[in-house]
Design goal:
The protein is mainly beta. It has a domain at 41-132: Immunoglobulins (Immunoglobulin-like), CATH 2.60.40. It contains no helices and ten strands. The protein has strands at 41-42, 45-46, 50-51, 57-64, 71-78, 81-89, 95-100, 106-114, 123-124, 128-132. Strands 3, 5, 6, 8, 9 and 10 form a six-stranded mixed beta sheet that branches. Strands 1, 2, 4 and 7 form a four-stranded antiparallel beta sheet that branches. A hairpin with a 2-residue loop joins strand 5 (71-78) and strand 6 (81-89).
Length: 133
């Protein structure tokens, strides 16, 4: 600082570098550990929005990061609870294709669910709506 309280810049070629180093005695730097749950991303695309009674529909998508060999479940919302309609095993590229034939007519709500594993918490796709008539 100069006499007037202003910062003075050193002349060219005479730059000053200051580093601060904090030294913490061993055993005094403990902090609480927290666990943060990380979800996979589950995508889902339905083959059609409207079907005739008795027809099947297909949902395709991916799970990322890659979870090849693990399972996903196509679930239907029934009286406020998710019920499994079908399942599929994830491919080497973590993709899936699953088909189902609804047991009833009307506007039905589906999702694709991926259960928790050793490094990710459970996750589900966005809700899919399909009308069967």
């Amino acid at each position: 600082m100069g006499a007037a309280g202003r910062h003075r810049r050193p002349a060219a070629g005479r730059q000053r570098h200051h580093r601060r180093r904090r030294v913490v005695p061993a055993g005094s730097a403990d902090s609480n550990q927290i666990t943060v749950g990380v979800r996979t991303k589950v995508t889902a695309r339905k083959s059609t929005a409207t079907l005739q009674a008795g027809e099947s529909f297909t949902v395709t998508g991916t799970v990322s990061p890659n979870h090849a060999g693990q399972r996903v479940w196509l679930q239907r919302l029934v009286d406020g609870a998710w019920k499994t309609a079908a399942s599929a095993t994830l491919s080497g590229g973590s993709g899936y294709t699953v088909s189902a034939k609804p047991p009833t007519t009307g506007r039905l709500t589906y999702r694709v669910y991926k259960g928790a594993d050793h490094d990710h918490v459970k996750a589900a796709s966005a809700t899919l709506y399909v009308t069967f008539g």
